[in-house]
Design goal:
By secondary structure, the protein is an alpha+beta fold. It has helices spanning about 100-120, 175-180, 190-205, 215-220, 225-235, 255-280, 290-310, 325-340, and strands spanning about 5, 10, 25-30, 35, 40, 45-50, 55-60, 75, 90, 135-140, 160, 165. It contains eight helices and twelve strands. The longest helix is centred in the last third of the chain and has 24 residues, at about 255-280. The radius of gyration is 21 Å and the shape is globular. The two termini are about 25 Å apart.
Length: about 350
């Protein structure tokens, strides 16, 4: 994430709707990957000046702090009331339940960062409105474990033909902590879930049926392998003892498609964090155009700092992963796919 500044010179943060220094309105242009100060123009319009250019916007329908406090802007010529992130959500948890109001807000906060990340990487996608068969959308659902009045007994977070389903309980810290313990995971966040499931969507749109499919199978394994059988085997026997030599996480070893999704999420995680570190002057590397081995080297350097800082305040490692040579090759493959998709 880049650093952003108000016109008064104060730093503003990705979640802000106002500058806490001068009180001016601020907003995000996802398409331009920018955040800036706004001026009201009447008729519901806002303006932002960048250099010699002035653009006009409207607030997202969910800008109000009583709803989502969404700070992503809608461009003047866009007919939609919702911003590009909010309009991707198809189903929300029952808002008559106070806990679900907070859950929806938490989920959307993570999704906004993911959508910004997606546009920052210039990844091509279609919405469900543009493509009713396989367009991207999100369903935030409850199950009976958290709401006995709903139909679904268990809701699994996952992806199917562009629809990303997220169990609304993933917004609850205590639920994530219990699931992390139960699943023996090193790392579990709401943003990480979004990035992982997004990986499945982009496998479908960027890999499946393209020139990338065969090299994918060579590197990750045969994607045609029986998924249900692999899932049962994983939960019955656990990962192979040597999984760390071949995969970024234990769950990656379950099936090639999960290996891809986990590694994809990891790539986005690395690039976003590195951009933040570069913007603060912690490391110096050309993330976009630099040699990828140099980028990885700087990432390792940064994670040593991150983990050391966490240990100094009595926290668990911020980065509990090991990058083997095979994982490096998979990350390189993902980088090449992303760069090719821009062309």
């Amino acid at each position: 994430m880049k650093r952003f500044y108000c016109s008064c010179g104060a730093e503003i943060f990705f979640e802000n709707t106002i500058c806490f220094n001068c009180g001016k309105l601020v907003g995000i242009d996802i398409v331009g990957s920018e955040m800036f100060t706004l001026k009201t123009k009447g008729n519901g319009l806002l303006s932002a000046t960048m250099g010699m250019n002035t653009r006009h916007y409207r607030f997202c329908k969910h800008r109000s702090p009583d709803t989502l406090g969404c700070n992503i802007l809608v461009r003047e010529n866009d007919p939609e009331e919702q911003c590009v992130s909010c309009r991707l959500t198809r189903t929300i948890p029952d808002q008559s339940i106070p806990r679900n109001v907070k859950r929806w807000r938490t989920l959307e906060e993570a999704k906004r960062r993911m959508v910004f990340n997606m546009h920052r990487n210039r990844l091509p996608y279609q919405t469900r409105m543009e493509n009713p068969v396989s367009g991207l959308c999100f369903d935030f659902l409850e199950d009976r474990r958290s709401n006995p009045n709903v139909f679904e007994e268990i809701v699994y977070t996952g992806h199917s033909s562009g629809v990303i389903t997220v169990n609304a309980a993933e917004a609850d810290p205590e639920y994530r902590a219990s699931m992390q313990e139960e699943m023996n995971e090193r790392y579990r966040t709401t943003l990480g879930h979004f990035r992982h499931e997004l990986g499945h969507y982009f496998w479908m749109t960027l890999i499946q049926g393209t020139k990338w499919e065969r090299p994918f199978d060579v590197l990750f394994g045969d994607h045609r392998r029986d998924y249900d059988a692999a899932l049962k085997e994983y939960y019955a026997n656990g990962p192979a003892e040597d999984w760390v030599e071949h995969h970024i996480s234990a769950y990656s070893s379950m099936h090639p498609l999960e290996d891809w999704a986990e590694t994809w999420a990891h790539y986005l995680h690395m690039m976003d964090t590195l951009e933040t570190a570069v913007s603060f002057g912690v490391v110096n590397v050309d993330i976009e155009n630099g040699n990828f081995r140099d980028v990885i080297g700087k990432w390792v350097e940064l994670t040593i700092i991150m983990n050391s800082l966490n240990r100094s305040v009595g926290k668990a490692d911020a980065y509990p992963f090991v990058l083997s040579n095979e994982v490096y090759e998979k990350l390189t493959f993902i980088r090449n796919v992303i760069l090719a998709s821009r062309r």
